[in-house]
Structures are given as C-alpha cells and as structure tokens.
Design a protein that fits this description.
32% of the residues lie in helices and 29% in strands. The chain is built from 3 helices and 7 strands. Helix 1 runs antiparallel to helix 3. This is Olfactory marker protein. InterPro entries: PFN, PFN_sf.
Length: 147
C-alpha cells in the first residue's frame, strides 16, 4: 500500500469536497478494510476530515458491515444513528434517524479493494446527489491506482 499516495489523493480531494457549507460533504472517513483478512486484524482509521471518530465506534461500524446486517440493523457514526435506505454492489446509502437538522443527514459508504469510505452530508435529495458525486470521484481516484 502506497500510504503517501493515498494521503496525497485524500488531501487534494478533501480540500475541494469536505468541510464548508458550500462543499458536498460535511465529513469523510477512510477506514483500512480487508474483509478477507484475519479477524484479529482491526480496521483502523486511515484518514478523517470533519469528524473525530473513535476506534471503538468504527469497530462497531466495521462489524455491522462484516456481518452484512445492512437490511436488519442500524449503525452509528458520531452522534447519529443511521438506517440503510439503499444497497448496491459495493456501496450503500443511509439516513440519520436522530438528526436535529430539519433537512436531514445522510451517509454514503463505498468499499474499495482496501478501504471502506464513508461520506457524511447534510440535506436531502439534491445534497445526496452532490455527495454521491464527490464520493464517487474520490473512490475513482483510488481505484485508478488500484488502492
């Protein structure tokens, strides 16, 4: 794994996609993830922007993904609890069940060869479309480098 390259792609991408109100995502997480690896290897936070996730909460999230409970249970990231709203081959979308934001909040989770990528956004349909575009752009950049 070329960590310097991953970090460079992350830094460039987050500067244009995460953080301020005019950017598509309020936060993003990049989690080391290998579902075929030994269970004793814990997934770790490779990068994060706009959120301070803890290893414990991400461990629970990774367990949720590993156990394929997408249709039957919810998951938490930060203060929000999410329920999955759509499932696709290597990604899924979720909406927050306990947000105080009147427009709502959502999450997009994509799996790459070595990572789980989580993009969090505020808003509804239009915001979700912008967020999906930003997430897809980052994952495409990683996949070009086989990461």
């Amino acid at each position: 794994m070329d960590w310097a390259l991953v970090h460079k792609i992350w830094e460039k991408w987050t500067s244009n996609s995460v953080g301020s109100s005019d950017q598509p995502l309020k936060a993003a997480l990049l989690i080391n993830y290998d579902p075929t690896g030994p269970s004793r290897l814990l997934s770790t936070i490779a990068e994060q922007e706009g959120i301070k996730a803890t290893p414990m909460e991400l461990s629970q999230f990774v367990d949720f993904v590993n156990q394929n409970k997408l249709q039957s249970e919810s998951f938490s990231i930060g203060p929000n609890q999410y329920i999955v709203t759509s499932i696709h081959e290597n990604w899924f979308c979720a909406r927050s069940m306990n947000t105080s934001n009147p427009a709502g909040e959502g999450a997009i989770v994509m799996q790459t060869a070595g990572f789980l990528f989580v993009g969090l956004y505020n808003g509804s349909i239009g915001s979700a479309s912008r967020a999906m575009g930003a997430v897809d752009q980052f994952v495409w950049q990683l996949s070009r480098k086989n990461l």
